[in-house]
């Protein structure tokens, strides 16, 4: 019998030993960074190891494409949807379609902004605010003890309308402002420029900033991801500014390439953003299938740390992204 989409019998039976017949639709937002590629791999391999069938689609940083991908999962009647929202807004309608079809949605990495939070089961990802706090803390510790100084920060921000960009900014500002009250050092964000989390874009905007003659007054570069930082380092090669010395650099993700740069002294602090979401996603899906939606917390954080120039580099665990 040929059973096209929409046929109820194509839906796998959820019994304890039938994980092979469970189908998970996984919609990834893009391929813009090594971090993102590792995030994709981590989720796919953990789910496949568990015996789940994974339908994988990549939206290549196009929200309409991602919406179509999710719709195709709904038509296929998958058992669960895992997805990284490219941006925060614009998901309400497709999530309602998933809810009507009775398909649970596991949001990973970035957050969605929806009025009705029952439209997704859980969010599994990093604490972006804590990452921003850690970056801010490094900067305020670095300049502690200096008095009556003003430290100018250039913030290189990620893609607009995304939670990592908003929360990293918020966390960073919160920490440097709190410190302001305790010390005589004023740390201020002089400018914030957008690089969309993309290396080439990071390079372009920093090049422009240099050409405009604004870089000379900057003491700290706070970059929302390593790819943009690599772009910024390339742009700085054309100047006589020595990165890591004349310009203190704090970056987020901890890709292998950036840990190598930390060891070379080209950057000062690398805040880890953990892409290894796979195990957390697998556990949440297993738990949901065994015990139902009530057994799943609304927010599941992955653990993360921070690496800086003053640490023993041999303590840095090997990176696989
Ligand atoms: O920091 C960046 C990626 O959403 C947390 O997106 C993620 C960010 C990550 O491209 O490298």
What can you see in these coordinates?
With 321 residues, this protein is α/β, with parallel strands linked by helices. The protein has two domains: 2-126 and 274-304, Response regulator (Rossmann fold, 3-Layer(aba) Sandwich), CATH 3.40.50.2300; 128-273, Response regulator (Rossmann fold), CATH 3.40.50.2300. It is built from nine helices and twelve strands. It has helices at residues 34-49, 63-76, 92-100, 128-143, 163-182, 199-211, 226-236, 256-263, 278-291; strands at residues 23-28, 53-58, 80-83, 105-108, 122-125, 149-157, 185-194, 220-223, 248-253, 269-272, 299-301, 306-308. The strands form two sheets. It has a six-stranded parallel beta sheet with strand order 2-1-3-4-5-11, sandwiched between helices. Strands 7-6-8-9-10-12 form a six-stranded mixed beta sheet, sandwiched between helices. α1 (34-49) packs parallel to α9 (278-291), α4 (128-143) runs parallel beside α5 and α6 packs parallel to α7. It starts with 22 loop residues before the first strand and ends in a 13-residue tail after the last strand. Residues 1-17 have low confidence and may be disordered. The protein binds beta-D-fucofuranose (GYE). Residues 32-33, 35-36, 109-110, 164, 197, 225, 227, 252-253, 273 line the site of beta-D-fucofuranose (GYE).
């Amino acid at each position: 019998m040929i059973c096209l989409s929409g046929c109820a019998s194509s839906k796998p039976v959820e019994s304890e030993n039938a994980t092979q017949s469970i189908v998970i639709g996984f919609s990834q937002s893009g391929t813009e960074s090594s971090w993102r590629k590792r995030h994709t791999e981590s989720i796919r391999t953990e789910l496949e190891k568990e015996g789940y069938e994974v339908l994988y689609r990549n939206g290549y940083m196009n929200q309409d494409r991602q919406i179509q991908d999710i719709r195709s999962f709904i038509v296929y009647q998958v058992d669960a949807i895992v997805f990284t929202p490219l941006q925060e807004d614009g998901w309400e309608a497709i999530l309602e379609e998933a809810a009507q079809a009775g398909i649970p949605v596991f949001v990973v990495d970035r957050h969605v902004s929806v009025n009705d939070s029952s439209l997704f089961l859980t969010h599994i990802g990093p604490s972006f605010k804590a990452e921003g706090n850690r970056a801010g803390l490094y900067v305020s510790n670095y300049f502690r003890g200096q008095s009556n100084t003003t430290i100018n920060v250039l913030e290189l921000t990620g893609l607009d309308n995304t939670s990592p960009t908003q929360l990293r900014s918020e966390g960073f500002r919160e920490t440097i402002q709190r410190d302001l009250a305790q010390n005589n050092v004023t740390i201020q964000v002089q400018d914030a420029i957008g690089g969309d989390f993309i290396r080439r874009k990071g390079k372009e905007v920093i090049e422009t900033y240099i050409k405009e003659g604004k870089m000379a007054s900057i003491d700290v570069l706070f970059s929302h991801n390593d790819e943009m930082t690599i772009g910024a380092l390339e742009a700085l090669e054309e100047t006589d500014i020595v990165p890591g010395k004349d310009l203190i650099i704090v970056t987020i993700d901890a890709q292998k390439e950036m840990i190598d740069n930390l060891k070379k002294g080209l950057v000062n602090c690398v805040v880890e953003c953990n892409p290894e979401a796979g195990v957390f996603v697998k556990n949440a899906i297993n738990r949901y299938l065994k015990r139902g939606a009530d057994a799943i917390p609304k927010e599941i954080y992955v653990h993360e740390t921070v690496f800086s120039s003053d640490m023993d580099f041999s303590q840095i665990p090997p990176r696989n992204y």
